[in-house]
């Protein structure tokens, strides 16, 4: 099973959102990381077959997806970034409706909906209208509809926005299990969502792919540039504007522990620490003024 993206380009009037992307995606979880406006959504919508590329093509096992039509939809699941369709529908009715659109039989529909409601803890809201659900709950319904047809390719755009930490962990586990022999692509700003489950991460900037690799391979870029130091809250102030700070957390001593990015240690007592994917994300995608 292979998805090939060849020289894919999308231009909106004078804006090139995706600029010559080449990718070969095989089964596993793929994290698509990039700042706002990098072109992630545009790329995913083209892969989902709902946006026509300006140039280039997408092939599934060697066949252009535009020639596959219905057959591509049968093997595809997609959770868009903004999910708010059919707000008047009750959860169960909506899932049944989506299952019918995806061509599931009555028997498969009942079985699959039960299974997904269980896995995504949706049972207690089965008879509620979607518009009355919390944001996190709506997202779970969105995830459920994307999984209804047991897709071979699953594309999720910002799937965990609105989910609480417990839900995020459950969701990650669900995806890891699901991706064993399938292609799952997750676009996100929430780096920890893909850090431990992604087989491979795709880094995107200004419409282009700037790097691809496992978390372990990619974090090497910031090896020796991540520091931690303990300091008083008052001393932190002047550094906040100058440094790329990853996080600051309170210590039992009353001091704060600051994790920051820099080529050299800036504060006395700074210790070099092993890099994480979030450190790299900040290094690549955030200007100093944002840090
Ligand atoms: N329909 C459109 N018309 C014009 N420009 C667009 C359109 N859709 C997207 N863009 C522009 O293309 C660029 C890429 O947008 P896209 O939404 O794909 O990025 P993204 O990486 O998904 O960002 P975000 O995480 O904020 O959704 C942005 O500069 C955006 O303003």
Automatic annotation (TrEMBL):
Q: Which SMART domains match?
A: AAA
Q: Name one GO molecular function term.
A: ATP binding
Pfam families assigned to the protein according to its UniProt record, in alphabetical order: ABC_tran
Family, according to the entry, reads as follows:
Belongs to the ABC transporter superfamily.
Limits of the ABC transporter domain: 3-231
The alphabetized UniProt keywords are: ATP-binding, Nucleotide-binding, Transport
Does this UniProt record's set of keywords contain Transport?
yes
Q: Which SUPFAM superfamilies match?
A: P-loop containing nucleoside triphosphate hydrolases (SSF52540)
InterPro entries in the cross-refs: AAA+_ATPase (IPR003593), ABC_transporter-like_ATP-bd (IPR003439), ABC_transporter-like_CS (IPR017871), P-loop_NTPase (IPR027417)
Name of this protein: ABC transporter ATP-binding protein
């Amino acid at each position: 099973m292979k998805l090939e993206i060849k020289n894919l380009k999308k231009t909106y009037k004078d804006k090139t959102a995706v600029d010559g992307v080449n990718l070969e995606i095989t089964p596993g979880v793929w994290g698509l990381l990039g700042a706002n406006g990098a072109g992630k959504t545009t790329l995913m919508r083209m892969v989902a077959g709902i946006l026509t590329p300006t140039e280039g093509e997408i092939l599934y096992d060697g066949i252009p997806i535009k020639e596959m039509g219905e057959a591509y939809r049968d093997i595809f699941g997609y959770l868009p970034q903004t999910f708010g369709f059919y707000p008047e529908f009750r959860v169960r009715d909506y899932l049944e409706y989506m299952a019918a659109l995806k061509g599931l039989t009555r028997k498969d529909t009942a079985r699959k909906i039960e299974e997904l409601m269980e896995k995504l803890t949706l049972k207690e809201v089965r008879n509620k209208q979607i518009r009355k659900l919390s944001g996190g709950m709506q997202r779970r319904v969105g995830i459920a509809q994307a999984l209804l047809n047991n897709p071979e390719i699953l594309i999720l755009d910002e799937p965990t926005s609105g989910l609480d930490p417990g839900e995020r962990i459950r969701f990650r586990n669900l995806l890891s299990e699901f991706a064993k022999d399938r292609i799952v692509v997750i676009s996100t700003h929430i780096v920890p969502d893909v850090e431990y489950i992604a087989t491979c991460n795709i880094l995107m900037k200004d419409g282009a792919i700037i790097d691809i690799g496992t978390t372990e391979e990619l974090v090497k870029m910031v090896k020796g540039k991540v520091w931690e130091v303990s300091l008083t809250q008052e001393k932190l102030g002047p550094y906040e504007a100058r440094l790329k700070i990853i996080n600051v957390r309170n210590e039992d001593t009353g001091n704060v522990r600051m994790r920051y990015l820099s080529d050299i240690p800036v504060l006395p007592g700074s210790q070099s620490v092993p890099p994480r994917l979030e450190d790299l994300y900040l290094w690549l995608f955030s200007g100093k003024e944002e840090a």
